[in-house]
Amino acid sequence: MNYSDFDLDFADGRVGEELVDKLLTGGLTVEVKTDRKWADTGNLYIETSCYRTSTQQWHNSGLDVSIAAYWAFVLNGGTLLVPTTIVRRAIAMYGRYITCDIEPNPTKGWLLRVDDLLNCLRDSE
To answer: At what angle do helices 84-94 and 114-123 cross, to 10 degrees?
Structure first.
């Protein structure tokens, strides 16, 4: 059976509308991160552990404990919304592990280029 471009576009549009509806009405969870340095570096910083002075130990945090279905990266007023599974895949493929020694809350995590995250998203289809 042949479908017109309208039929395909309409069906894809409905899938997109349903996703946004679930995100906005609480059907899906979203972890929201704002990165002020990405425009200068091209990187996103994705935390996976933090040091707690109260316990004097490192604890899992950020992506390592997230149960959100999606991560939203707020970048200069725009938002990049990505399934958490894609964020994890992108880190496994392209991430660069770093320690962020900013007192009083040192963290560890991954630097990930926005372009690499988009490549993983593109390849997930």
So the answer is: 120
β-bridge pairing 107-113 and 96-100: antiparallel
Q: Which two tokens stand for residue 89?
A: 């895949």
24: in domain:
no
The tens digit of pLDDT for each residue in 73-102 reads 988 888 899 999 999 999 999 999 999 888
Domain count, the chain: 1
CA separation for the pair 13, 47 (Å, rounded): 33
Contact 111, 92 (CB under 8 A): no
72 within a domain of the structure (yes/no)? yes
Does residue 17 form part of some domain?
no
Instruction: Report the alpha-carbon distance of residue 108 to residue 100 in Å, rounded.
Output: 6
Residue span of the structural domain in which 53 resides: 29-123
Q: Which tens digit of pLDDT belongs to each residue from 33-47?
A: 988 888 999 999 999
- Of 19-23, 39-43, 96-100, 120-124, the least confident: 19-23
